């Protein structure tokens, strides 16, 4: 039987280690038969990624360095992908950053620089990579980003990142309209709290996770594999009629008042 993503090449941005949401996505897409290209920023993440791929016997088509804070770096990365691989069919954007000191206390205390940094890395980066990736999606494609409920509601300590996620989700809608005419879809998965390197930077993470187990309709926490499979749905043709959407993968927590 042909696998769901057989013959499809997908770029994955944001594997820092085994706990990364992007690693859960990697496993789902690999099991579905996709060819994978990775981008990362830090040397440390590169090494972790190479080890993980080896351990799980996954062969990357290409690994390129990409710092989304730099237009030059984004252009170089996608230029290299174009030269060495050519056409791509999907892109996973699983990248965010805010200063740790802004992920606690009052949102009103957010600095101008901290606000701009969170917006740049966590929201504008989707705009920049969509612009670069669409040139390589000559057969249509699907772009999926990762967001969080803090965009819709006040979640204690999430502060500046919640506002960046609101901007990210609005970008999903505007970008979906821009690239829809080229047969490209743009969607977001809104995952419940998952213990990752980035999540550790948000104060009170443990409380957020335990509330899900207590109050969410499914009464259980979220893991990277659940997000991976939901992302697989968006990347595959199973979701061919869906764009500009935010899908909650949070045990149903967002419906509880
Ligand atoms: P990770 O820390 O594992 O992943 C974050 C990734 O962002 C890292 O790979 C990091 O790369 C990358 N990154 C940061 N800055 C840059 C940059 N300037 N250029 C390129 N890459 C950069 O955490 P998660 O897996 O939790 O985070 C992935 C996404 O999921 C984020 O958007 C996050 O907000 C979102 N999310 C997370 C939830 C959670 O509870 N964990 C819940 C809902 C959404 P490097 O290590 O090389 O710096």
Helix tally equals 7
User: Could you report the average pLDDT, rounded to the nearest whole number?
Assistant: 97
Strand order of the largest sheet: 3-2-1-4-5-6-7
Name the helicity range. Answer: 40-55%
Which CATH class? Alpha Beta
Distance between the termini: 44 Å
Integer count of domains: 1
Shape, per Cα inertia axes? globular
Q: What is the total tally of β strands?
A: 7
In short:
The protein is α/β, with parallel strands linked by helices.
Give the helix/strand layout.
Blueprint: E1 9-13, H1 21-31, E2 35-40, H2 43-55, E3 60-65, H3 71-84, E4 90-93, H4 112-134, E5 141-147, H5 159-180, E6 184-191, H6 205-215, H7 224-235, E7 246-249
Parallel strand pairs: 1-2, 1-4, 2-3, 4-5, 5-6, 6-7
Helix pairs in contact: 1-7, 3-4, 4-5
Bound molecules: NADPH dihydro-nicotinamide-adenine-dinucleotide phosphate.
The site of NADPH dihydro-nicotinamide-adenine-dinucleotide phosphate has 30 residues, from helix 1 and strand 5.
How does this structure look, described?
By secondary structure, the protein is α/β, with parallel strands linked by helices. The protein has one domain: Rossmann fold (3-Layer(aba) Sandwich). Helices cover 41% and strands 16% of the residues. Strands 3-2-1-4-5-6-7 form a seven-stranded parallel sheet, with helices on both faces. Helix 1 crosses helix 7 and helix 4 packs parallel to helix 5. The structure holds NADPH dihydro-nicotinamide-adenine-dinucleotide phosphate. The site of NADPH dihydro-nicotinamide-adenine-dinucleotide phosphate (NDP) has 30 residues, from helix 1 and strand 5.
